[in-house]
Hints:
By secondary structure, this protein is α/β, with parallel strands linked by helices. Helix content is 43%, strand content 11%. It has a seven-stranded mixed sheet, with helices on both faces. A five-stranded parallel sheet has the order 2-1-3-4-5, with helices on both faces. Strands 25-24-22-26 form a four-stranded mixed sheet. Helix 6 links the parallel strand 3 and strand 4 (169-174).
Amino acid sequence: MDYVIKLLQNLMPLTPWLEKLGLNSGTSMAIEGIIYLVLICAGIKLYKFLMRHIKKPETAKSLPQDPNESSIKPIQKLFRVFVSSTYEDLKEYRKAAEKAINDLRQKYEGMEYMGAMDKEPTKACTDLIEQCQLLIGIYAWRYGHIPRGAKYSITEQEYRFAAEKGIPCLCYFIDENFAWLPHFIESGPGEKKLKKFKGNISEAHVRGRFREVKDLENKIIKDLSIWLADNRPVPRGELRNGGRDPVDEYCKAVVNDYHILSMIEVERSFDMDGIYIPLTVHCEPESQPVCTKEKIQHPFKDRDLTALDLLKLSEKNIVVLGEPGMGKTTMLQYLAFNTGKKKSHLPIFVKLSDFGKTDKSLESFLLSAVSAYISGPAMQSAVQNSFMNNRALILLDGLDEVRRENYSTVVSRIRAFVSRYENCRVIITSRKAGFMGHKLPYPVYEIDKLPIKKIEEFIGKWFEKPDSLVKCIMDNSRMFELAQNPFLLSIMCFIYGKEQRLPQRRVDLYEKCAVTLLELYDKRLAGKENVYIRYIKERVLQDLAYFFFCEKMNEFPYEPLIVQVKKTLEETKNVNNEESILLEIRENSGLLQQSENNHLFVHRTFYEYYVSRKMRNDEKITAETVLARCLESRWEEPVRLYAAQIDSEEEGSEFIQKLWQQDRALALRCYPDMKIVKPELIKELLKKADVKETASLVKGLKDKIKPERVVATLRELFKLETNGEVIYWGVQILEEMHDTPGASEIVRQKLDDGAQERFKKLVEKDMILIPTGEFKMGSSDDEYDREDDEVLHKVKVNDFYMSRYAVTNELYEQFDPYHSGSRDKYSKDGNQPVIYVNWFEASMFARWLGCRLPTEAQWEYACRAGRSGPFNTGDSLTTDQANYNGNFPYKDYPKGQYLSKTRPVGSYHPNEWKLYDMHGNVWEWCADWYDEKYYETCEKQGVVTDPSGPETGSYRVVRGGGWNLLARCCRSAQRTDFRPGIRGGDVGFRLVFVPQ
């Protein structure tokens, strides 16, 4: 009867037609009312006649009508409807079409919800139309955009494509007598093309003309209702006597219901096969009920369990836990879809919250759920047989959504069913917070967070060119954390699709996500209407978040929660009921979730974001209060988000400087997200800082903060830091943490990216190939002034490249410009060897160029250049051959000059392999740890190939002597040990390159 009345309400008004016959307005309205009254009376009589004479279908005897039966609604086929029109002139009309489609529980599709189009727009539209079952065309006075090289506008191409593919169309033209904005009326060639286009639209597709927005909405509701009635599947109850297999028809119906997956219930849907990423689960022994701990075994020892693997477990009954948004419901729907398609099981999916509202046994409830698809004794018998013979797959969703007062009885009824049907496979889902394991003693599995490969796969299914979004997520550890939750990842994809970018600053991203949930999420949900404006809801969320964060509570008990909401509403002079706004936030946005008698944020990110909003917006909370919070690590994220909301350069710079004095690492993490701050501020602060102090800060990070915060700190530090020792310690930490998202990327960007290009540009021309060879390393017993650690032994060295010169000031300062401040009278010119560089700094500079420091064996082999004896110059070394302290010659040779400083590289003759200054000028760092007994160990092994020194030690080897040292210290075999952190005025280094 309601349907009859609704059709009558949607009939075209008769008054305008009566007025054209010459009747005045009052008379016309009276006649129209009489006509409608007659039609209504006729409709009522017809309805009563049908009710008396149409035989009602029999109800299966084994399935008695339950008083709660109405709570289970038959699931009807979901049609996808594409709306085609020009956009700017018909925005409100498109919204009306969308509302009409949603009111009839169908799926709206349109160009505004297609996201970033990686393909040509027309192709993107036609690809989407091909997935739809109906096109609605709305045409006013604009022809629309014609793509380059095309003959028709996108709008006309959409209609032509649908018509060619045989897709039904419902088309509507603007009433020519209806007033229209002049700037939306096309003239010239466009006007002619539009007229021709309208003339080419099939008369069978034209459903009428529209005027106001509501007029179009009513027409679409009427026409779409008729179309749906004509195109719905065969009523399920009729299948009982149709000679078809009821199980087969049931599986087809289940597949049909779940083949479309709506993402975040906003704007867009996908085919289940096309978008679903099989989630993985793991078993946590400590979370298992005592009675099942010893039983849990699965055959997939070498890989993670997927959703489909759950069907192969020896345990027939399991619980799958997951945090909000981790895809528990979708996992069960995927299992129903997959098993229904393969007909491997008879899947029955039900919401436990619905089951909890009835007094039925679970068996009876499941039979009722099946009858909503296919009714009749045959189907009923097939279901009961499947319970007995292990063909049924019972999917019970949302145990945590059952009311607390019903929880125990629901669990008891589940256990009773499991006890009766031991071979039946049952999978139950629940949020961790709402699960009472002691009441349901089955093995417990937990859904894994999405790893990077799954994130990439998901984005790749959403966008044709996913690389830019993947990079955006991976470059920010907090974004990556969000993306590991499928629900939040879909929101990020939605935002990226709408704007073709994600906000670069975390605080802006969180705001976008929160606004999306507050405003966009519920636009597509029938029956959920926003009563409160966004400002009021945000105030409530801010106040709740700050209050409970101060109380160190992650879940909010109902009583204090309501008190806080009431307080906020009073402060904003809002007299509405506090429970109603809480319900709206919870049900419409999903930002808050309910567990038992508690509430909590759907993700901690939103919790901390709203804490920061409160800190920033409440005048009573000062910067000093915020800085005091920094002493507790749990306040870090709210503090960082607070800093990011500062919109004054003076305030921002002052805040960072105060934070720098209190916690430099946190200041480094805050700085990059700040909107306005004094340029180069952190660089200036770092320049003033002592290197040892900064290195100590870096080395202590792992012991003080969480891995993701370590990565965030070093990411920002590496953008600014040039000192090799600080970088070295950061690299050691990051390489140990290579499994932490973003860690390896930081090292690669700082040192390895561009190393090949830098090598070619800066040092390749001066690299000398040192050929493979064998030599005696160390010194003979009769060598003058030899040391005990120079035991002679045979070594084979494979070929490598060595730099012709020691590294110069000019070259080193390409890496660390601030090192120019270390130049002094001992080495002040650009072509003199760099000094005051410790081992850590030398090794990082070498890696920056794709090189490394020489091993001790490589250095001595290259120094000798095929010669034996104390020097590559022979038995003696003069100050005409090398730069050393000439007051202390070798043996009894004459004294020479003492320059008291380094000389420019290449000032003396090279050795036989064209290497300069291998004796004197500066000591040169080697890669090896020093061990005075190491040569003895090597000597016992015979010929040693490419020895790399001991694995550990306290000192590093230096070779070659220096400008201020005795001639004996410049011998080829001379070994000296320095602490790796020492910076000497006579210590430098040279490079080695070994091709891979």
